[in-house]
Amino acid sequence: MSLEKIIERIKQDAQVQVDELKDKASKEAGKILQNAGDEANSYKAQALENAKAEAQQRKQRLISSANLEFRKEILAEKQNAIDLAFQKAVNTLTQMNDEEYRQTIKKMLISSVQTGDEELVLSVRDKARINENFLKDVNKELVKARKKGNLKISKDTYNILGGFVLRKGNIEINNSFESLFKSFRDDLEAEVSKVLFP
């Protein structure tokens, strides 16, 4: 075999090997690209899934927050309505006609007087409605209840809407309407709420 044929043969064998290497490299590159594409798609899908989950969580947090704010506002409005109901109740008591008012105060006095010789402190307005004749009648009832019938109207006045304060020495029992409603509010609030918001 001549040198030229040998060289030609070597070239052909080398070309076959080069072609095989190119083909193998091309296939490997294709696999790498395919794997990279699959991995990128997987990352993309995972990132999209994570973004959707995060968006859903954020949406739920916003809805929960909005619901909480709404409930707070509803509760505040209910509380305002209850406050208004108590205020109207106090106003109703103070706006009674004089005779009804005196009868109410009389019942309150008879049930709250301890000894019967306390001093009765009133509002400026009630000084005109609660007079000595009224007090004589109350003192008679107190005597029947085996208490001293010595209630006196104080020269002092208190800034109260209605009701009275019983005073003996340094001890005062506050029976003003606003004080009574305040002290019984916890017990009454549930009932008022049932009436206002059945």
Strands, helices and their partners?
Layout: H1 3-94, H2 98-112, E1 119-122, H3 124-129, H4 132-144, E2 152-157, E3 163-168, E4 171-176, H5 177-196
Mean pLDDT: 84
Specify the CATH architecture of the largest domain. 2-Layer Sandwich
DSSP E strands, number: 4
Low-confidence stretches: none
Shape: rod-shaped
Strand content: 5-15%
Question: Terminal Cα separation, in Å?
Answer: 114 Å
Widest sheet: strand ordering:
2-1-3-4
Please count the helical segments.
5
Sketch the major β-sheet.
4 strands, mixed
CATH topology of the largest domain: hypothetical protein PF0899 fold
Cα-atom Rg, whole angstroms? 47 Å
Summed up, the domain count is: 2
Describe this structure in words.
The protein is an alpha+beta fold. It has two domains: 1-95; 97-196, hypothetical protein PF0899 fold (2-Layer Sandwich). The chain has helices at 3-94, 98-112, 124-129, 132-144, 177-196, and strands at 119-122, 152-157, 163-168, 171-176. Helix 1 (3-94) crosses helix 5 (177-196). The longest helix is centred in the first third of the chain and has 92 residues, at 3-94. It is rod-shaped and about 155 Å long. It starts with a helix and ends with a helix.
Keywords:
198 residues, alpha+beta, hypothetical protein PF0899 fold, 2 domains, four-stranded mixed sheet
Give a quick rundown of the structure.
The protein has helices at residues 3-94, 98-112, 124-129, 132-144, 177-196; strands at residues 119-122, 152-157, 163-168, 171-176. The protein is an alpha+beta fold.
